[in-house]
Design brief:
Helix content: 25-40%
Structural class: alpha+beta
Number of helices: 2
Distance between the termini: 53 Å
Shape: elongated
Strand content: 5-15%
Mean pLDDT: 75
């Protein structure tokens, strides 16, 4: 592969890297997951049961297979 093309493809690193999973995005205080207590995608003001994306996916799998 041509070196010039490879440099253009890779580009410069971004100033704000993606979160690693343990960090939360800046914004409102996020509600805790009711199962694992990790931060969710929902603000604390959301009423009802709040689940993190992982627990939400697992719950959807359980309800889909419960027939």
């Amino acid at each position: 592969m041509d070196e010039r093309r490879e440099e253009a493809y890779c580009g410069a690193p971004t100033a704000n890297p993606a979160p690693t999973g343990t960090e939360t995005a800046a914004g409102p205080p996020y509600a805790e997951c009711v199962l694992c207590r990790k931060p969710t995608e929902y603000p604390e003001s959301v009423r009802g049961i709040t689940l993190c994306p992982v627990c939400e996916w697992q719950e959807a799998q359980r309800t889909a297979c419960s027939g």
